Amino acid sequence: MDPSEQFIVIGEPERRTERTNVVVMKFGGSSVADATCIKRVATRIVDARRAGHPVVAVVSARGDTTDELIEAAQEISANPPAREMDMLLSAGERISAALLAMAIHELGYDAISLTGSQAGILTDTVHTKAKILDIKPVRIQKALAEGKIVLVAGFQGVSEDKDITTLGRGGSDTTAVALAAALGAEVCEIYTDVEGVFTTDPRIVPDARKLDVISNEELLELAASGAKVMMARSVEVARRFDIPLHIRSSFTTTPGTWVGQDDATMEQAIVSGITYALDDCKVTIHGLPDKIGVAAEIFSALAKAHVNIDVIIQNVSEGGAADISFTASEGDLSKVGEVLSSLKEKLGFDSFDTDAGVAKVTLVGAGMRTYPGVAAMMFEVLAENGINIMMISTSTIKVSCVIQKEHVETAVKALHKAYRLHEGLVSRQEVFGLASSK
Ligand code: ADP
Ligand code: ASP
Ligand code: MG
Please, which residues bridge with residue 121 across strands? Predict the structure, then answer.
């Protein structure tokens, strides 16, 4: 292919495409769950087209299709080949794209559905967790020039080895944002089943508050620590390519949450959101010789196996042996087991165990950067609710605690109340004054 057709290389922001009036709209699984939903989405897309925008719509698999396909695979094999998983899972998004194209034709507009591969999305070869390397949206641009509405099956691409890949759970968000970057879109609209980004999951805390605007940095932390509403990688891509994001409901026309630049934290709240992650598990390695290079060896091997590690704790006992605990996602547990078993003899540790009964609760807020009491108050609130903290990790704008899974709902509700997130912007004195006067 002619190199001039390379519109974007993710990782080279200087090669930005000129802004156009293209709109990229992404519809999540619940937004296309049944025929009524698909027709509603079709109308919404046609409205944008009527308003004068060339439209590219990215769709997810319908309802619980991806989970059902994973279950179908597990009924056949405990450890299915990752390449075949990608062949299987990518089908869910293709179904949605084709049905939506039909619904748009019914409304009298010309539409074409494309797979990720046909849309020009090139990825690396890491099956089930592929990263986009390059987008060559030649077919999309041709179809747009012919006046067609383009539907792209989200969450997938084609690898350098010409195999179909998928981008990891929630990956349609990344497809949408990366396409918006490649096409120089005016805006990337993420349509979902809630009205925007809330102070916490509105399904757990009904009085959670919708944020009208959130900084890219905070959304990235929320997404990375478990808020399902956006895939973390998609927020990174939006930040790198400066893509305006609007996260909103596909069921109402209410404006949602706009994602602003990092210095645009409109609300200087100490805590802007609380997240939880249920798919973490805790791994502990017992009796490691306390020698230089041991941790490097373990975590390099895990990284090579594409296992993402989160919180890490090391305890060294007086006898010179160390215990290391870390969290990883439950889906990576078998890979963690393989890696650690292969290192056991070489490193000479006693044993390792895994605990899938854990969860992580995280407070995120740009305002906590300059406020030291946030972590202490979090621990206090958890203690008052009888919740034991197993691990802690912090960054400049977040504090995470690993706790028992069964306590997650209590923890999220109690923290949301303690930081008065339902009330909007509350001053630091008010929040902390309230906590200490209890
Ligand atoms: P989609 O299928 O549209 O991609 P997801 O299920 O991936 O939707 O993400 C939307 C869900 O994210 C919501 O239904 C909500 O339960 C959950 N969620 C978790 N945390 C938040 C939050 N802070 N704000 C909004 N939604 C959240
Ligand atoms: N269907 C995929 C998933 O359920 C991708 C997505 O919805 O974004 O994770
Ligand atoms: Mg999603």
Answer: 135
Cα–ligand 3 centroid distance for 169 (angstroms):
8
**How far, in Å, CA of 248 to CA of 246, rounded?**
6
- Of 227, 208, 238, the C-alpha closest to 420 is 208
Q: What's the 201 CA to ligand 1 centre distance in angstroms?
A: 7
**Which atom of ligand 2 lies closest to the CA of 29?**
7
Residues with C-beta less than 6 Å from any ligand 2 atom: 28-29, 60-61, 66, 92, 154-155, 169-173
Q: List, chain by chain if needed, residues with CB within 6 Å of any ligand 1 atom.
A: 28-31, 60, 170, 192-194, 197-198, 200-203, 222, 227-229, 273
Q: For each of the chain's 438 residues, which pLDDT tens digit applies?
A: 333 333 444 545 455 678 899 999 999 999 999 999 999 999 999 999 999 999 999 999 999 999 999 999 999 999 899 999 999 999 999 999 999 999 999 999 999 999 999 999 999 999 999 999 999 999 999 999 999 999 999 999 999 999 999 999 999 999 999 999 999 999 999 999 999 999 999 999 999 999 999 989 899 999 999 999 999 999 999 999 999 999 999 999 999 999 986 554 445 678 889 999 999 999 999 999 988 899 999 999 999 999 999 999 998 877 778 999 999 999 899 899 999 999 999 999 999 999 999 999 999 988 888 777 889 999 999 999 999 999 999 988 899 999 999 999 999 999 999 999 998 755 555 555 544 433
Measured CA angle at 337 (ends 331, 339), to 5 deg: 110
Closest CA to ligand 2's atom 5:
170
Name the strands in the sheet holding 55-59, side by side, starting at the edge strand that comes first in the sequence: 111-114, 149-153, 55-59, 23-27, 187-192, 245-249, 257-260, 213-215
Ligand with smallest separation from the Cα of 228: 1
Place of tokens 């373990």: 298
